[in-house]
């Protein structure tokens, strides 16, 4: 039996996915969460074989949570489920050591088969998306820098960012200065525009 943790913030979508997966004779959803910061603690508790994670979650984005799972629970493989099929997003998923990347509008049997493949360590990514991802430019920013820039893009102040990410305001300013420099940007707003256009956020 393949044990699955499902992370999806939309209640109806999560319920439908749980029902679909539990119809499979060899798959059991052992936990479901609605925010990114619940993923790692729950995964440590239930020890799933596969974590099916929505990329856009409140609290912490799905790719950040996937990196944490990869580092803390190497026996649990991650499958990103998203409505965003952009090449830059796929590239970020590959960099995060995600085993699978599936669009939400994929047929339901494709999801079950993807879970089975990911559970045994196979990589499952749409071939056209994977090819497009390899053709995009490498992102010069670290995962932490992307996280900080993403929060900044929501209009948060340095103090807000520091509180949300448990950093000092000085550390946040240092990160932002490094981001602006790496992207050859004029300022933070320009850096956000550059990263958004390149699909790194």
From TrEMBL:
GO terms for molecular function: DNA binding. The keyword Flavoprotein does not apply. Keywords: DNA-binding, Phosphoprotein. Gene3D superfamilies: 3.40.50.2300. Pfam families: GerE, Response_reg. It comes from Amycolatopsis azurea DSM 43854. It comes from the Bacteria. The keyword DNA-binding applies. This is DNA-binding response regulator. Residues 134-199 form the HTH luxR-type domain. Residues 3-119 form the Response regulatory domain. InterPro entries: CheY-like_superfamily, Sig_transdc_resp-reg_C-effctor, Sig_transdc_resp-reg_receiver, Tscrpt_reg_LuxR_C, WalR-like. Signal peptide: none annotated. SUPFAM superfamilies: C-terminal effector domain of the bipartite response regulators, CheY-like. The modification 4-aspartylphosphate is found at residue 54.
């Amino acid at each position: 039996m393949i044990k699955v943790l499902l992370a999806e913030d939309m209640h109806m979508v999560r319920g439908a996915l749980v029902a679909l997966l539990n119809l499979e004779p060899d798959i059991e959803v052992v936990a479901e969460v609605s925010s990114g910061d619940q993923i790692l603690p729950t995964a440590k508790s239930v020890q799933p074989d596969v974590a099916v994670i929505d990329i856009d979650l409140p609290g912490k984005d799905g790719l950040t949570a996937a990196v944490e799972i990869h580092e803390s629970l190497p026996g649990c493989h991650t499958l990103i489920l998203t409505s965003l099929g952009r090449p830059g997003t796929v590239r970020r998923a590959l960099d995060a050591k995600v085993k699978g990347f599936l669009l939400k509008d994929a047929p339901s049997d494709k999801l079950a088969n993807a879970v089975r493949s990911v559970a045994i360590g196979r990589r499952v990514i749409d071939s056209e998306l994977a090819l497009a991802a390899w053709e995009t430019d490498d992102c010069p920013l670290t995962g932490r820098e992307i996280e900080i820039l993403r929060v900044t893009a929501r209009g948060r102040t340095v103090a807000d960012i520091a509180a949300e990410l448990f950093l000092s305001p000085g550390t946040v300013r240092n990160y932002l200065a490094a981001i602006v420099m790496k992207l050859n940007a004029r300022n933070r707003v320009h850096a956000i525009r550059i990263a958004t256009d390149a699909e790194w956020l």
